Amino acid sequence: MQSNTPSDDAGADAPTLSALDRRLGTVETGFNLVAALAIFVLMLIGVWQVLGRTLFNAPVRGYIDFVELSISTFAFLGIAYCQRLGGHVRMEMVLKPMRGRLLWSTEIFGTVVALAVIAVLIWYGWGHFLRAYQLGDSTIDAELPVWPSKLAVPVAFALLWLRLLVQLAGYVRLALDPRRRPVAVTTVLTPEELAAHEIEESLGAAERGRRR
Amino acid sequence: MSEFTIGILGVVALVTMVFLGVRVFIAAAAVGLVGMVAMIGWSAGAGMVGTIPHSKSVSYTLSVLPMFILIGFLAFHAGLTEKLFDAATKWIGWLPGGLAVATVMAATGFAAVSGASTATAAVFSRVAVPDMLKAGYDKRLAAGVVAAGGTLATLIPPSAILVIYAIIVEESVGMLLVAGFLPGIVSALVYCGLIVVMAKLNPKLGRPIRGYTWTQRWKSVPGTVPIIAVVLIIFSAMYFGWATPTEAGALGAFVVFALALLHGMRWHGLRESLLESAKLTVMIFSIIWGVLIFVRFLGYAGLPEAFAKWVVSLDVPPIVIMICILLFYVVLGMFMDAIGMLLLTLPVVYPAVIALGYDPIWFGIVVVKMAEICLITPPIGLNCFVVNGVRPDIPLTTVFRGIMPFFIADVITVGLFLAFPQIILWVPQLMRAG
Q: Within 13 A of B239's CA, how many CA atoms are on the CB side?
């Protein structure tokens, strides 16, 4: 919740990059929507489980297995969406006073580190999935297959990797010429902007939700 | 290079990267990965690290997080704040500074459906500040009380941060949640006491609001029933164990969801709440597995034990060390989100605290309270910016001046927790005994 993507009208400055940014953004929102629906379903099944067990002595079969497997959706699928919106926690104290080339170079450093780490995690996460798939692993109680849940990790990380690549391009573009307008990157927000963001999330959402 | 040296280098690298603005989950995972590879080789190290995101996330205990987060986002659509504030005003408005006291009590109630401090401050700036100003209350008091009232949300369950603490230090989630209620209420009462004393000494700050009949009072009660229902569901499920935290969270979310529908939430509002919940959930999970990669590395390097041993060997009373640790959190919290701060530091700090003989539950509550204080202290004090953002007519300096007494109240509260650990430990001990 520390930063966000600057306004879209900067698109005119770097048409290819902002088109890529938008296209990737659509996929990311789709992934996050799947995660969001999984959370909603988890709520409904939880209610069903409690009522079924306490009132009718009929718990949902394999409830815990189902919950554990569904975690993969909301634990991973939204990761690129969150990265685009600058939602992952970081410390901005040192970045704040930085300007121009120094700032963008520091951002490039962080993005390159992320690209490297996520690449390794995709590779070994894929191996983790492949083993489960080939061995036909299943959960203990309901005997649900485990591989789809493990597949979510490399898939979500691959999307994150693409997002990081777009951000890297955005930062490199700015480092080459700091006078350009930021496109497809996250920027450091002032406490005022951050507060505006928080207010929008709590008050704005509620009011718009009622109006439509 | 010895493993211990690699461990120290890893910590230095992590701190450097975090300062340079690398996302915390990436910095932690990067150091953990490189460190493991340095110690046990590429294929064993990277292979082990590569399985951590999935294996550590897919655990039933963690599934409570999205439920608690969802309750919080849905609560904004349920119109609970107005009803709580109305009921609190009618019942306790007659006290000196009555509307401010009512704001604290309503925020305490709202905390039972919200775990987000800044968001709570935002809604109360909208609901309570206009009434206080209309009644001629001092601007500083009005602004300060909503900024401070927001901080109550994280101690009183549903609280994501308490769940995260429990998971990282491997304590019972239910126990920590149950433990959060009483300290949350004590914090609120200290705020209330402070307001009453201040308004008594200087009646100009805020006059009592009188003249409500008993009929009016009782009529305001039904509006607060859903909150009481959610509190009862979560507290009793944890205390008596009739449902797991995830199940209780699901039930609580469903109650608030139904209420939001009744209050007029439509598809767009639901979609927004769900998307925001998913975003916050993935943020928390990312940082959990990222930090757990780092923790695996630290464990291999033997750093936490070494640090704990060193701390215990120091020739100073434990209480002095504890106060130093708490001050360290105050400073760190000024620059960093509470969740990131706790996750990054607990792997090293926690074993030392336990070695000093402090109770894990007690420390969890105190540390979360510290993280909250950071939300109202300069230079960031996000809650103050939020109040100023909702009410631009109240200058930021006024908000910061208004928050001062509440900051002192919080220091008193932490002092109470230090002097009387029973405030925190009493209910969990009852639960253990039962």
A: 17
Instruction: Find residue A187's DSSP bridge partners.
Output: A4
Query: So what's the ipTM on this one?
Result: 0.90
How far apart (Å, rounded) are the C-alpha atoms in residues A65 and A144? 7
DSSP A145: B
Q: Regarding beta strands A187-188 and A3-4, do their DSSP bridges make them parallel or antiparallel, or are they unpaired?
A: antiparallel
Count the neighbouring beta carbons within 10 Å of the beta carbon of residue B410: 22
User: Is the link from the previous residue into B378 a cis peptide, with omega within 30 of 0?
Assistant: no
pLDDT value for A205: 59
Which of A69, A90, A198 minimises the CB distance to B24?
A: A90
DSSP states along B123-191 = HHHHHHHHHHHHTT--HHHHHHHHHHHHGGGGTSSS-HHHHHHHHHHT--HHHHHHHHHHHHHHHHHHH
- How remote is the C-alpha of B86 from its chain's centroid? 25
Over residues A103-109, mean pLDDT: 95
In the block, tokens 């935290």 appear at B245
Among B345, B338, B84, which residue's Cα sits nearest to residue B225?
Answer: B84
Structure tokens at B416: 């109470």
Q: Using CB atoms, which residue from B57, B123, B279 is nearest to A75?
A: B57
Which tens digits make up the pLDDT trace of B376-395? 887 777 888 889 888 989 99
Cβ <8 Å between A95 and B21: yes
Question: CB atoms < 10 A from the CB of A138, how many?
Answer: 14
Asked if pLDDT for residue B201 goes beyond 90, the answer is yes
Nearest to B19 among A94, A128, A206 (CB): A94
Residue A6 has pLDDT above 70, yes or no: no
Backbone angles phi, psi at B337, to 5 degrees: -60, 140
Cα separation, A3 vs A186, in Å, equals: 6
What three-state secondary structure class fits B352?
A: helix
In chain A, whose CA is at the least distance from the CA of B28?
Answer: A117
Q: Does B76 touch chain A (CB under 8 A)?
A: yes
The dihedral of CA B315, B317, B318, B323: what is its sign? negative
Q: What is the pLDDT of residues A141-189, one digit of tens each?
A: 777 888 989 999 999 999 999 999 999 999 999 999 998 888 888 888 7
CA distance A86 to A81: 9
Q: B31 in contact with A at a CB cutoff of 8 Å?
A: no
Residues 6 or more apart in contact with residue B185 via CB below 8 angstroms: B108, B156
Whether residue B272 and residue A208 make contact (CB cut-off 8 A), yes or no, is yes
Structure tokens at B17: 């990267």
Burial of B305 (0-12, 13-18, 19+ CB in 10 A): middle
Does residue B118 sit in helix, strand or coil?
Answer: helix
In B263-317, alpha helices (H):
267-301, 303-313
Say if the Cβ atoms of B390 and A88 lie within 8 Å.
Answer: no
CB A210 to CB B264 under 8 A? yes
Q: Which two tokens stand for residue B174?
A: 């239910």
Would you list the DSSP string of A31-99? HHHHHHHHHHHHHHHHHHHHHHHHHHS-PPTTHHHHHHHHHHHHHHTTHHHHHHTT-S----TTTTT--
Tell me how far apart the alpha carbons of residues A141 and A144 are, in angstroms, rounded to a whole number: 8
CB contact set of B320 (below 8 Å; sequence gap of 6+): none
